[in-house]
Amino acid sequence: VFTLVIIIIFNFAFDTGTIEMQRIAPGMMWVAFTFAGMLGVNRSFMPEKEQGSFEGLLLAPMDRGAIYLGKLLGNLTLIGMVELLSLPLFALFLNIPIVKYLPGLLVVFALGTIGFASIGTLFAAMAVHSRMREVMLPILLFPLASPILIAAVETTRIVFSDGGWDELSSWINLLVTFMVVFLAASLLLFDYILEE
After folding, report:
1. Average pLDDT of 25-39?
2. Could you list the residue range(s) of the whole structural domain that residue 72 is in?
3. Which residue, 66, 69, 179, 186, has fewest beta-carbon neighbours within 10 Å?
């Protein structure tokens, strides 16, 4: 619903007849995905916190990296579903031939979403004990996630403009690098963050 509201607002804000939508659509898409993802990531650890089972989860005889990966998979599933369900809405409201660009978009969405969700899951674990977690998570997440979001927007723009592999490869490499760094750092830091 949140993503639909964003798409409708952007649809009224920009006249599709005067502005080349394929130039501004990547930014619109990633704004919608980021804020919808933020809502989901923010609730990652809330069921355990609200039911008082968070400490029990920490005492479980298992690697804490498995807890992180489980939460990450849940967040990836949620954000991925939002992205896939919103693509037809972007095609409808913004008049973009999404099917033509689908293979490239799926690659960009996968890389950008994994990077965003990996760092978001880590910060959700950090913010879960804060009384102001709804405010704290965006303050922590957006500055660190902005490089991967900028790379995702630029890569999406190149896909929409039918850019060649020479133009696309540097941004794809940047996305892969951010994804790997964020995922590895989150796995390494997760155990420490849970102890604090």
Report:
1. 90
2. 1-14+22-194
3. 66
